Amino acid sequence: MDVEILSRIQFAVTISIHYIFPPLTIGLGLILVFIEAAYLKTRNPLYEQMARFWTRIFGLIFALGVATGIVMEFEFGTNWATYSRYVGDVFGSALAAEGIFAFFLESGFLALLLFGWNKVGPKLHFFATCMVCFGSHFSAVWIVVANSWMQTPAGYHIVGEGMKARAQIVDFWAMVFNPSSVDRLTHVILGCWLAGAFLVTSVSAYYLLRRRHIEFAKSSFKFGLALAVVASLLQLASGDSTAKGVYKNQPAKFAALEGVFKTEPYSPLYLAGWVDVENEKVHGIGVPGALSFLTHLNFKEPVIGYDRIDPKWGRPKIQAVFQAYHLMIAIGMGLIGLSLLGVFLWWRGWLFLGENKWIRYYWGVMVLAVLGPQIANQAGWYTAELGRQPWIVYGLLKTSDALSKAVKAEHVLASLIMFLLIYGLLIALFIYLLNDKIQHGPDDHAPELVEGNPANPREGHRA
Amino acid sequence: MTLPLDLNTIWFGIVGVLFAGYAILDGFDLGVGILHLLNKEDHDRRIQLNSIGPVWDGNEVWLVTGGGALFAAFPEVYATVFSGFYLAFMLLLFALLFRAVAIEFRSKQPMRWWRQMWDIGFTVGSFLSSFLIGVAIGNIAWGVRLDAQHEYIGGFWELLNPYAIWMGVTTVALFAMHGCIYLALKTEGELQKRIRSWVNNTIIAFIMCYAIASFSTMLYVPHMVEVFRAYPVTGVLALANMFAIANIPREIHKGRDLFAFISSCVTMLTLMGIFGLGMFPHLVVSLPDMGNSLNIYNAASSQKTLGIMLVVALLGVPLVLAYTASIYWIFRGKVKLETHSY
């Protein structure tokens, strides 16, 4: 294998693992704000218990996010040095802004969130929670802006030629609000909310099934479900808008998403299918005219396919992009269904009828549904990044031209193996510890000093 | 001497401040890690871990931000250094990752073997991180082989030259001293007594390393000392550095741990100042062909970007300093183990 494919695999591995954690903290952060607001308003100790438990989960996830995030911060330089030289003026700025504005806010106030229960009052604690939530959202802003610029570059000009060519900012705000920024940011944030919401409902449903911490579980479930239904419905609108944006700005990518080879009237929308790339055909369940309608609000108007797209744009790995994209959508629809069903049960007062076996089935599905947003987020990210190929910066720089010249294939192979080992360990321990915290459950009364307190056998259990 | 105060110079300063902030802050928690195994009791080790508990990941954010600022202001340096020092840098990342994992997971299980394993992981990770940071600084000061496109053309083993290795050792000693003083500040009773008795040894170890490092720099790395020869007034910085070091044992002796720690911070700040002044205006020295060196002009982003980022920094850095300070204020005082401790 050559440097290019190894570097791409390494980046994919490191970003995929990293991308498990920030979406969870973004979504969970928002729920924590709601819970603590409810506590401030009602002073119901149940809310305090919930806030403490979910903060513990938040802390574990955040620590892994920081650890895996440091790798990301430097991997552009280590493996993509030519890219870094080319886009540093633009991309580096967004990354630096992320560090200066968002990370400090998040990590600084997180210390208060985790360790400050006995040091500050509930109002200041609530303020810290808001800041952590704000910081995590703000960091998503900058990184998605940077990534969107790679999809739809704007606000720059190219200086120099050949090896010396560099992209430089001309208009900062045009760079920030490049054509895909707002759509993609909305889509990513909603995906993050779903990740957090379904984590909360999953753990709560697990407690309900096990008949443990019932009051805690019911209340948490409602917070999670409320966010899930809002986010999953908004995601439908956001997904539609994002797809329209891709069609407008990156038709070659859009053609891969939907498997459009021929430009024809009444373009079909495939709900699922298999792309025969060689013969330029899709075998699957297609709804005639539906793609035309979604794209143009008109069943007849053709959707541009590869036959009408300038070949200079190249084609990504169409099968992979098509499948990732359809997987994301299928899961998204499933999440909408689960959320709406939950809200319906809630409205009828059936949501917590533990004796009913159908309700128990629903809880069981909700336990597993935590994987839904995770898989959809990953699939969406793969769609976005694979769909952009063969470009690293769309239309400006090819991925194959972006590598580090000083780095050899065996170096990348060595580091890739190390990453696989360390991240394997990391994931195993993450799951183990998350499970440990969930099994331990919320504390039934406010914790006191551990030392000399035999009532608390779990010495060293970090809250 | 007159400094040409343009955007490039200002950014040289800002990047320097961010990395100095990283060295001072993560320096003490790496140092705590280096010394971690010296105390054998589980309770003492937990106190040590929890002394850095609320702050260590915030401290590492300085590294992330320093990296981001370097990327934004001097992309050529970011690209050259991290691709050129690929394996060494990957090792540093693994060490930091592993160390973070060790901190998080160490106290999660009561078994002795479990805790011992992660304690060793924590120390090895901290030691290796400090050492590699020093090696990188050593190489940047000494000079590395770059071609006309600013690409690193040396190999991995060249980076482990005696000068760089010595800078690595010196950094380990520096962080150990800094961490030891921090621990003295955060502990009490028997444990504090023991830790305070180590402080002098760590100072002596550091001064010995530092003296050898300084002499070899003066003898073998002439471009680092040019500025001090040309402008003797810059020697003030070296003098301040020496006073700061000398002040540490004095404050410890008087039982003023906080002042000892501040002195240690000043020591690190002045060290970074000396390093920065010695490098200026270079960012990465190229040897043997100095003409291929990266400096604050040929490695920088456009003036427009430097200007925009200056606004970002002027808005952001005071905020950063404000909440860093408030967090340290809220978590001041001795460490107590609580349910939510590590």
Overview of this protein structure:
The complex is a heterodimer of chains A (463) and B (342). Chain A is mainly α and 463 residues long. Chain A contains 14 helices and six strands. Chain A has one domain. Chain A has helices spanning 3-18, 21-42, 45-79, 81-115, 122-151, 172-176, 181-210, 214-249, 251-258, 290-296, 318-348, 357-368, 371-388, 409-440; strands at 156-159, 166-169, 269-276, 281-287, 391-393, 397-398. In chain A, a hairpin with a 3-residue loop joins strand 5 (391-393) and strand 6 (397-398). In chain A, helix 2 (21-42) crosses helix 7, helix 3 (45-79) packs antiparallel against helix 4 and helix 9 (251-258) packs across helix 11. Chain B has one domain (8-330). The model of chain B has no long low-confidence stretch (mean pLDDT 85). By secondary structure, chain B is an all-alpha fold. At the A-B interface, helix 3, helix 4 and helix 14 of A face helix 3, helix 4, helix 5 and helix 12 of B.
Features:
heterodimer, A: 463 residues, mainly alpha, globular, B: 342 residues, 1% strand
Briefly, what is this?
The complex is a heterodimer of chains A (463) and B (342). Chain A is mainly α.
Q: Give the strand order, joined by hyphens, for the main sheet of chain B.
A: 1-2
How many helices of chain A in DSSP terms? Answer: 14
Structural class computed from helices and strand pairing of chain B: mainly alpha
Largest interface: A-B, 83 and 75 residues
Q: How many E strands of chain A? A: 6
In terms of topology, how is this protein built?
The complex is a heterodimer of chains A (463) and B (342).
Chain A: H1 3-18, H2 21-42, H3 45-79, H4 81-115, H5 122-151, E1 156-159, E2 166-169, H6 172-176, H7 181-210, H8 214-249, H9 251-258, E3 269-276, E4 281-287, H10 290-296, H11 318-348, H12 357-368, H13 371-388, E5 391-393, E6 397-398, H14 409-440
Antiparallel strand pairs in A: 1-2, 3-4, 5-6
Helix pairs in contact in A: 1-3, 1-14, 2-3, 2-5, 2-7, 3-4, 3-8, 3-14, 4-5, 5-7, 7-8, 7-12, 7-13, 8-9, 8-11, 9-11, 11-13
Chain B: H1 7-35, H2 42-52, H3 56-73, H4 75-84, H5 86-105, H6 112-142, H7 162-186, H8 189-220, H9 222-230, H10 235-253, H11 257-279, E1 282-284, E2 294-295, H12 303-330
Antiparallel strand pairs in B: 1-2
